[in-house]
Specification:
Elements: E1 4-9, H1 14-23, E2 29-36, H2 45-49, H3 61-64, E3 68-70, H4 75-81, E4 84-87, H5 93-105, E5 110-112, H6 138-145, E6 152-154, H7 163-167, E7 175-184, H8 210-221, E8 224-226, E9 229-231, E10 237-244, E11 251-259, H9 265-274, H10 278-281, E12 292-295, H11 303-306, E13 315-322, E14 328-334, H12 338-354
Parallel strand pairs: 1-2, 1-4, 2-3, 4-5, 5-6, 7-10, 12-13
Antiparallel strand pairs: 7-11, 8-9, 11-14, 13-14
This protein binds NADP nicotinamide-adenine-dinucleotide phosphate.
Length: 359
């Protein structure tokens, strides 16, 4: 497989740090550029991050010694140095939209962890096991942007990365109503217990904008390409509540679902066990071998014990049982900064690389 030079935009942040770890020894992608705000530009990545290093593993030397570039001022220079960039920045939505389009128009594809372009009709929002075909919309997007190589592809919000994969293989029974309550880790806000001590022994029943994303994004992921846009699905009817809970990493969800044609419990468990997507078929480096992992024990999956299933790229489910109001209920878990953020971004980039979108 060909190798590609890549940049990390937002390299000093929580997701950016995770990208450094994941890409340090990646077989296809070499990190050549790290960039962040002008506050960090000119320092080595190690100096710029300093005490804010939030990962358990040490910072990779080869990436920590790179000099941070200015993500806004150095767009053309960065675009000339790499084949594509990963982007995870904390800026106003409108500013992120502009920044990502500047990279795309400089013929530098952008794999984004930000929400700014998730609603843009010709920007694919991809969970590689679920809607890999949506990358075909890139042709229309390139026409709109007037680019040959440049485009933007995004991954979905971390909150939906457990229940959408769990529900996806069950679509053939007609997903009707879905209720999901999420219990989301503090790293999802770019925080640790050191930087957010108020979260120790606490639950906050509000995460700005999260419920809207959790209800709308699955419909785009399950949508269809029609002409030059992705048209969202109209079912299922999804309602959510998203809570911030005192765990460091790992978003749990309690899910209730009803179907047009109710399957048996055995049918659901079989579909989960046997589900494979394009990443598994292509043996992409970051693809989990077993994407959906069901635990028989009543007290699993647990955030602390099970978030690292399949190196944090698998999704775990448990407690599947019939419900009095809906057909079934179950719990599910995914690692929010691995499958839900940087790892999901890397897997999307691998899919795009395997399909020739960076050539
Ligand atoms: N954390 C998660 O689990 C998660 C999951 C999915 C998606 N996301 C999304 O990923 C993005 C980053 O999240 P995060 O948690 O990593 O945030 P974060 O820890 O606050 O890091 C933000 C990054 O953005 C950079 N930045 C801020 N202003 C900038 C500017 N004007 N120009 C260029 N760079 C700028 C920062 O650089 P400086 O250090 O120089 O300020 C830093 O590198 C957000 O859009 C978030 O919604 C996060």
């Amino acid at each position: 497989m060909k190798t590609y030079n890549v940049g990390i935009i937002g390299a000093t942040g929580m997701v950016g740090q995770r990208f450094s770890l994941l890409l340090a020894n990646h077989p296809w992608f070499n990190v050549k550029v790290v960039a962040a705000s002008k506050r960090s530009a000119g320092k080595t990545l190690k100096e710029a991050i300093g005490e804010k290093w939030a990962m358990k593993e040490p910072m990779p030397e080869n990436i920590g010694s790179l000099t941070v570039m200015d993500a806004e001022a150095d767009v053309e220079k960065i675009a000339s140095m790499v084949d594509f960039v990963f982007c995870a920045v904390n800026m106003k939505k409108e500013d992120i939209k502009v920044l990502e389009e500047r990279y795309a128009k400089a013929e530098c594809p952008v794999i984004s962890n930000n929400s700014a372009h998730r609603g843009t009709e010709d920007v694919p929002m991809v969970v590689p096991e679920i809607n890999p075909d949506h990358i075909e919309i890139i042709k229309s997007q390139r026409e709109r942007l007037g680019t040959k190589r440049g485009f933007i592809a995004v991954k979905s919000n971390c909150s939906i990365q457990s229940y959408v994969p769990a529900l996806h293989p069950l679509k053939k029974f007609g997903l009707k109503n879905v209720l999901a309550c999420t219990y989301q880790a503090i790293s999802g806000a770019g925080k640790t217990f050191e930087t957010w001590p108020e979260m120790i022994d606490n639950v906050i029943p509000y995460i700005g904008g999260e419920e809207e994303k959790s209800e709308n994004e699955p419909l785009k992921v399950w949508g269809k390409i029609e002409g030059n846009k992705i048209v969202p699905a109209t079912t299922p009817n999804i309602t959510t509540q998203c809570l911030r809970v005192p765990s460091s990493d790992g978003h749990m969800a309690a899910v209730f679902v009803s179907f047009d044609n109710k399957p048996s419990k055995e049918e659901i468990l079989k579909l989960w066990k046997e589900f494979k997507g394009v990443p598994q078929e292509l043996s992409l480096p970051f693809a989990p071998k077993q994407f959906l992992n069901y635990f028989e024990e009543d007290d699993r999956p647990q955030t602390k014990l099970d978030r690292m299933v399949e190196n944090g790229m698998g999704v775990s489910m448990g407690r599947l049982r019939e419900d009095k109001q809906y057909d079934y209920k179950f719990v599910c878990l995914s690692h929010n900064t691995l499958r839900g953020a940087a790892g999901g971004g890397v897997l999307l980039a691998e899919l795009l690389a395997a399909k020739g979108y960076f050539d």
